[in-house]
Amino acid sequence: MDTTLKFSALLLLMVLVSVLVNASTFNNDFGHCERVVQKWASSSLEQKVKEDKHTLRDLLFFLHVPRTGGRTYFHCFLKKLYSSSLECPRSYDKLRFDPHKQRCRLLVTHDDYSMMSKLPSERTSVVTILRDPVDRVFSTYEFSVEVAARFLVHPNLTSATQMAGRLRAKTKGVSTLDIWPWKYLVPWMREDLFARRDDRKLKGLNNVMGGDPYNMEEMVMPLHEYIYDPIARDIVHNGATFQVAGLTNNSYTEEAHAVRHCVQRHKVLGEHVLKVAKKRLDNMLYVGLTEEHRESATMFANVVGSQVISQLRSSNSSMENAADNKLEQSSSFSDSNPNDDDHQNSSSDQKASDTVTSENAEAVKGNMTAGELMESYEVCISSLRKAQSHRRTSSLRRISPANFTKEARHQVPEVVLQQIRSLNHLDLELYKYAQDIFANQNGRTILEFHSTERWKSIFNKSHEFALWQVLSLGMTIVLFLFVFIVFVNARRTTLKIKI
Q1: Of 13, 39, 58, 174, which is least packed with CB atoms within 10 Å of its CB?
Q2: Cβ-based burial of 89 (10 A; exposed 0-12, middle 13-18, buried ≥19)
Q3: What's the CA gap between 186 and 147, in Å, rounded?
Q4: Distance of alpha carbon 427 from alpha carbon 241, whole angstroms
C-alpha cells in the first residue's frame, strides 16, 4: 500500500513538474514572440499615410491576392492600359523581380507587400482587391484541386512526379506551378489525387456515387481535412492579411517567417499584424472588393484607368517631342558637318519615336475614356470567363462526380464554415475594414463624377447663355439702327417740308 501511494505521489509530482515546465516554456516563448512581433510592427507603422495617395505615381504595383479576380483586371484593364514594354520584368512568375529595368511602370504579382523594399516607394502607387475570406478559402481549395486534376489526363502514369516531369519538359515559359502560392498548393493536391486514385484501384472502386463534392474522400481530400492541414494553415488561412502585411512564406523581409509563426502560435499577437495591414490599405490608391464586382470595376476605371491614360498620354507626348527635338538638332548639325555617325543617330532617334507611337497600349492609342475602358472590360471579361469555365469543366470531369458549384457550397455543414471563420479571424477583420474603405472611396468617386458632370452642364449652359446674349444683343443693335434710320429719315422729311 505504501509503495502504491509513493508511486502515485511520484506520478503526481512528475505531472505537476511537467505542467510547470510547459507553462514556463509557453510564457518564455510568448514573451519572445511578443518582442519579435512588436518590433516588426513598430518599424512597419513608422510609414505615414500619403496625403496625395489618390494620385497615381510613376509605378503601379498591383498586389494580387489569389482568388480575388485580379487576373481579369490584369488581362482586361491593365493590358489595355500599359504596353508590354512598360511591364516590369518577372511579373507573375517564380523568379524574383528585377528592379534594374528602366522605365518600369507596371508590376502585377502575387508577391506580398514586402516587394515595396525593392521598389522606389515614393514613386509607387499600390492597388489590391480583397474577397470575403470564407469564399476565398472555398475558391483556393477548388482551384488547387482543379489544376491538380489536369495531371490525371494520362491514367497510365504511376506518379504525380512522373507526370510533372513530362509536362515541364513540354512547357515553355511560366506555368501555374511556377507561381506562388500554387507552386506549393497544387503539388500537394496532385500527390493527394494520385494517392486516392491508386487506393480506388486497390479497392476495386470503379464507380463512386455522387454526393457532397466537398466531402468525397474517395476522390479528393475533403474540405474539413484540407483546412486543418499544416500547409493550409501556413499559406491559405489569413493569407490576405499576411500578404498585405508582407509576411507570407514568399516574403522579402528577413523576419517574416518568425513573425508569421509567432502569430500562428499566439492568436492574440495577430492584432499587431492586423494593425499594419490596415495601415497599408489606408495608403493604397485603390482597394476593390470581389463581391462588389461591377462597382469595383467601375471605380477602377475611373480612379486608376483615367489617371493611367492621362499619365501615359502626357509621357508619350513628351517623348515624341524630345525625339522630334533630337531629330531637328541632328539634322541641323548634319548640314554643317555631314558624317555617318550623325546619320545613325538621326535614324536611331526616328526609330525611338516610332517605337513610342507603335507601342502605345490600346486605351492610350485609341484615346479611350474611362467609360469606354469599362465597356471594353465588359467584353473582355465575358470571353475570359467562358474560357475559364471551359477549362474548369474539362479539368473537374477527371474527378467526377466531385463537381464544385455555388449550389454545392450550400451543402457544407455550418460547423465547417464556422471553423473556416475561426481560422481566418484576421482576414475577416481586414475585409470589414476594406469594406469601409471601399464605401468611402466609392462615395467620393460618385461625388467627383457628379461634380464633373455639374461643371460640364454649367459650362454648356454658359455657352448657350452666351450665344443667346450675342443674338439678343445683335437683334437689339439692328433694331436700334432701324429706329435710328427711320428717325433720321423722318427728320429730313420734316426739314424739307419746313423749307
Answers
A1: 13
A2: middle
A3: 7
A4: 6
| Structure confidence by residue, pLDDT tens digits, 421-455 | 999 999 999 999 999 999 998 887 776 655 544 44
CA pair distance 87, 80, nearest whole angstrom: 12
Q: What are phi and psi of 128, to 5 degrees?
A: -155, 170
The tally of CA atoms less than 13 A away on the side-chain side of residue 195 is 9
Q: How many CB atoms lie within 10 A of CB 81?
A: 24
pLDDT at 113: 96
Buried b (16+ CB within 10 A) or exposed e, 237-247: bbbbbbbbbbb
Residue 309: exposure state from Cβ atoms within 10 A (0-12, 13-18, ≥19)? buried
Distances (CA, A) of 494 to 234, 491, 497: 109, 5, 5
Please report, for residues 326, 331, 343, 348, 403, the alpha-carbon distance to residue 339 in angstroms, rounded to integers and kept in the order given: 16, 11, 7, 15, 72
Determine how β-strand 106-109 pairs with β-strand 59-63: parallel
**Structural domain boundaries in the chain:** 1-31, 59-307+368-449, 320-360
6-51 per-position pLDDT tens digit:
666 666 766 565 544 444 445 678 999 999 999 999 999 987 767 7
With residues binned 3-state (H G I as helix, E B as strand, rest as coil), the percentages for the chain, rounded to 5, are 70, 5, 25
Distance CA 306, CA 337 (A): 46
DSSP 87: B
Supply the pTM of this predicted model: 0.76
User: Which residue spans within 429-470 are E strands per DSSP?
Assistant: none
**Amino acid letter at 439?**
A
Rounded CA separation 75/56 (Å): 20
Residue 67 has phi, psi (to 5 degrees) of: 65, 40
Q: Which amino acid is at 329?
A: Q
d(CA 164, CA 497): 118
* Mean pLDDT, range 136-146, rounded to an integer: 97
CATH number of 59-307+368-449: 3.40.50
Nearest of 324, 318, 320, 317 to residue 346 by alpha carbon: 324
The CA-atom distances, in angstroms, between 165 and each of 98, 151, 168, 171, 177 are 28, 11, 5, 10, 12
What are the beta bridge partners of residue 288?
129
Query: How far, in Å, CA of 35 to CA of 321, rounded?
Result: 56
What pLDDT score does 442 carry?
A: 86
Does the pLDDT value for residue 253 go beyond 70? Answer: yes
First-to-last C-alpha distance (Å) of the chain: 162
**Sheet of strand 124-130, all strands in order from the earlier edge strand to the far edge:** 106-109, 59-63, 124-130, 286-289
Half-sphere exposure of 476 (CA within 13 A, CB side): 6
